[in-house]
Design brief:
By secondary structure, the protein is α/β, with parallel strands linked by helices. It has one domain (4-214): HAD superfamily/HAD-like (Rossmann fold, 3-Layer(aba) Sandwich). The protein contains ten helices and seven strands. Strands 4-3-2-1-5-6-7 form a seven-stranded mixed β-sheet. Helix 1 (19-29) crosses helix 4 and helix 2 packs antiparallel against helix 3.
Length: 217
């Protein structure tokens, strides 16, 4: 069995906005995302609302990407990461990743952001494993759908449990860092859990369960 340090990215290693939010804002400014995409997203939001799953549904809704050419998105993603994401990665977060590696932990990054953004973290943080939203591509364009489970909420726990046999995760001897109350489901798997930049709900959960609380700028 192996000791792992599992890091959430959005709101944790990347304080504030998610990688995906920064990419969407940039794409709007550059005219890559059309008004029709927003109309589709609004319609889906209403469906999620009436099903009682607005937050989780919107997190997994990638309809804004539907019909966008893979090659163009790849180019924009690389530019966005370089200009707007890499410079904003937390210094304390990067130091914690390095310290965990020095202490003998393998590094796993988890994010609900699309894979075309998440893979740019690889040369920067050099994790042993990366779990992100795997985007479906058809005829060279994005379909607006995620393949398999979207890494958000309870799905993060399920993805870790599925990966445990292959990665030989010793949950009791491993540590997890995350920022949102929806992460509590997978944080409870670990022997050590650290709430980073927690919102009110996660802070309350962390205090009740004796988890550590840290703030990364």
């Amino acid at each position: 069995m192996a000791r792992w340090a599992v890091f959430d990215v959005d709101g944790t290693l990347l304080p504030g906005d998610s990688m995906e939010a920064r990419f969407i804002k940039r794409s709007i400014r550059r005219g890559m995302i059309s008004p029709a995409g927003f109309l589709g997203l609004l319609g889906n939001a209403l469906k999620f609302f009436f099903r009682g799953n607005l937050a989780g549904g919107l997190k997994g809704d990638k309809s804004l990407l539907k019909g966008l050419p893979f090659s163009r998105v790849e180019t924009e993603a690389a530019a966005c990461f370089s200009a707007e994401i890499a410079p904003r990665l937390s210094r304390l977060g990067r130091e914690t990743v390095a310290r965990c590696r020095e202490e003998g932990c393998r590094i796993l990054l988890m994010t609900g952001s699309p894979d075309f953004l998440a893979r740019h973290l690889l040369p920067v943080l050099q994790p042993d494993q990366l779990i992100s939203a795997e985007m479906e591509i058809a005829n060279g364009c994005f379909s607006g759908k995620v393949r398999g489970l979207h890494p958000y909420g309870e799905a993060k726990k399920n993805l870790l449990l599925r990966a445990q046999p292959q990665l030989q995760i010793d949950f009791a001897g491993s540590v997890v860092y995350a920022n949102h109350h929806s992460d509590a489901a997978h944080m409870e798997l670990f022997g050590r859990a650290v709430a980073v930049n927690p919102g009110r709900q996660l802070k309350r959960i962390a205090r009740a369960r004796g988890w550590e609380i840290e703030y990364w700028g």
